[in-house]
Write a structure and sequence with these properties.
mainly alpha, 17 helices, about 0% strand, globular
Amino acid sequence: MILLAALGLTLLGIENPISLNAQQRTKLIELIKTDKDAKARFETLKRAVDKALNDKPNPIRVIQGEGKLKTDPLAIKTRESLGDMRKMYLFAYTFAATGDTQYADKAREFILAWAQQNMPTGNPIDETTLDDLFFAFDLTQSQFSPAEKKSAQTWMRKVADTQIAMGLIHARKGDGISKNNWQSHRLKIVGLIGYTLAEKKYIDYAIASFKRQIEVNLRPDGSSIDFHERDALHYHCYDVEPLLELAIAANNNGTNLYTYKSKSGASLEKSVKFLMPFCSGEKKHPEFVKSIVAFDRKRAESGDENYKAGHLFDPKKGGHSLELAAAFDKNISEVYCQATSRAASIYPSWQFVLNAVRDK
């Protein structure tokens, strides 16, 4: 089964997809067998996925969460539906690690349900969570029939095309959305789809726009526009995480974006290093004190403690940024463990296992 999956990727001409290529899958299987920490991370994942094997997909026609309070009925309904994303991710990686097609079958069931029901809007904040679906399709597409594959790919192209179209609208307006975290998430979405489908026009758009984003969004000292506008490391993380995901996919396909420097000297690497002292505890930052965005105050007034002005940045909230960046710098592992209060380990989270098998 595993060999058939690998053969499917080869026949598609996708040697280095956004998740794992055939060689990396083999490395993952071997690592789980031989390393107790890696095995422990996988067993945690598998326990979660086995609980979801009898679940049915819950796609939503239109994702609507951006700009809404947590108590908004549409936001609640959206969050409930988006629970499908993590399930797809778990199904797909369990299939990759075991070759057991029951997990691929469940991933396929969920992916097709979303492809048939969901209508893309081009809002990158709403659609950024679709990345787990892209990873799932990337890992399981060898198990799709030609008609099923076409259905999923057609929907993914609609997602990418709508994102690009909306991005052009904001660029013509010259508003902040064309260079803040919205654009970072937009590039991740289009780039992941481009690499998943091996479609050059999407890949070229994502890489060219990534380089522009480094220039207009990040500063030479590593800080970001979002950090300064929101006065919050929460939004700095939210800005760099999608860029890191795109950089990992690009690196898996032979393009180094992590250390790319703009004319001003800004880089994604510098923006990760800017964050690290706040995650290690060396520095503190009171969040949202000088935010210029009214919605931040509205959320705080609604009782959302995450947006209360003056609360100190929680290092744990930088954990995902760090584990993604560790794909490029193994030394980040120590700070990650400090930030998340985890025992020192080569593989303190599942992401570190993936980083290891992608390492060349």
